Amino acid sequence: MAIAQNILDIAVAAAERGGAQKITRVNVVAGEMRAIVPPQLAFCFGVAAENTIASEAELNLEIVPVRGRCRGCGEDFAIKDFSYICPGCGGRDIEITGGTELRVRDIEVL
Ligand SMILES: [Zn+2]
Predict the structure, then answer these.
(1) Does residue 57 belong to any structural domain of this protein?
(2) Residue 78 CA, ligand 1 centroid: distance in Å
(3) Ligand 1 centroid to 100 CA: how many Å?
(4) Distance from the CA of 76 to the center of ligand 1, in angstroms?
(5) Span 58-91, pLDDT tens digits
(6) CA 101 to CA 7: how far, in whole Å?
(7) DSSP string, 48-103
């Protein structure tokens, strides 16, 4: 719920800065690490957006996979099923380089 409110606040602030009357779509980039359940977030967003200029906005979520870089051999790879093992050398010293973000990429307004 806090995440939905946060996204809404960012979208509304951006729309108001641009002088928009209505937000029609909010494009959000969410890392897999955030463990977001899209229908749940969309529902919470809808509730939070009631009586705001985003009340009819569609929430579009783009889920970004978790990525890691091996400190041993430098291999950059997508981490699947939270398996932090380098596919290049089998090393386990992995730096997380992506998949933790959560941001509003852009909004569409009227
Ligand atoms: Zn490696």
Answers:
(1) yes
(2) 13
(3) 21
(4) 8
(5) 999 999 999 999 999 999 999 988 889 999 999 9
(6) 13
(7) HHTTSTTTTPEEEEEEEPPEEEETTT--EEE--TT----TTT----EEEEES--EE
Residue 106 is given by DSSP the state: E
The CATH number of the domain holding residue 49 is 3.30.2320.50
The total domain count for the chain is: 1
Question: Ligand 1 centroid to 85 CA: how many Å?
Answer: 8
Q: What is the pTM of this model?
A: 0.84
Q: 77 lies in a domain?
A: no
- Distance (angstroms) between ligand 1 centre and the Cα of 94 equals 8
Q: Tell me the CA–centroid distance for residue 44 and ligand 1, in Å.
A: 40
